[in-house]
From TrEMBL:
Superkingdom of origin: Eukaryota
InterPro entries: Integrase_dom_put (IPR058913)
Every Integrase core domain range: 126-305
Protein's name according to its UniProt entry: Integrase core domain-containing protein
Amino acid sequence: MGDVAVERTTEQLVHQYFSLGFEHKEILNYLKILHNRCISLRTLKRILAKLHLYRRKHFSNIEDVVRFMEGEIEKGSQLHGYRWFHLKCLQNDLVVSQSIVRELLWYLDPHGMELRKRKRLRRRQYSNKGPNYLWHMDSYDKLKPYGICINGCIDGFSRQIIWLQAGPSSSDSKVIGGYYMNALKMIKGCPKTLRSDFGTENTLVERMQKALHQTFNEATSERPPFLYGSSTHNQRIEAWWSILRKHNAQFWINLFEMLRDDNLYDGTFLDKSLVQFCFMQLVQRDLDEVVLEWSVHKIRPSRNSNSPSGRPCIMFEMPSLYQTRSYLIEVPSFALDALSLDCLFQEYPCDE
């Protein structure tokens, strides 16, 4: 019976990682490194066949794929590239090739594809030693005039999103501290260095980060635990905001601008409160979806970058595959619980 239970759990894990778009080798690495399950490629293929999970046969009805893509484009995915769209199809149990998605996208959204072809700005070189070596945090203010403030943090090495939260304030240091503390509780430690822009909203995080290093970082470090700098030196998170805008935020910007242009929103306290009541949890749901899609998508190699390529979640959770290690400073739960007393944690209005 024990073997049956283990096999069933392994099948569930295989189904989960396959649905995220992982390749065979990546699924095997996750099972081995994170779950201590060593199975062969042959066994994995047998499990996939048993679960009727395929990539190159039993393709979905093309009409179902078209309907799904049309729905996503209408919801605000006009600037998704075909690789990102292909991943969204896989995560919604649609079996379709990347080439078909590309052709359909040219037909369904030619304007969006043309926008994707515009040349990108060349950025300065960036280097990072490993996961949790340097985090970048910042606030995204495009929805702030409508009462929705987004704050996020990204791991510089893997580009894994540490947190991405929508709330009523991005200027309250206790709120930002709550985002930071929730992240630390999830991974049971703090980064070697955390970088942010200048601003009083980051002062509590700065104090907590420095206090944790003074108490639990036994190794001497050439880097300070917290760094302030201009936006140009916080390029990882600044660059990711443009990705967020293309894949999600532009939809909400357009919606709220339409309300304003139709004289249905004038920026009063009451109007902002109504927007928060009606839309805050919807925005957060979309942010969570973008984070998941981003975490499992593949970052392609770049000739002009020293950064590794691959899926952010794998680079963050399995640094040994990239000949490096995690620089996480381990922190016991009692210390995190004590610091949490100074923080405010997200509560949605009337979420019952």
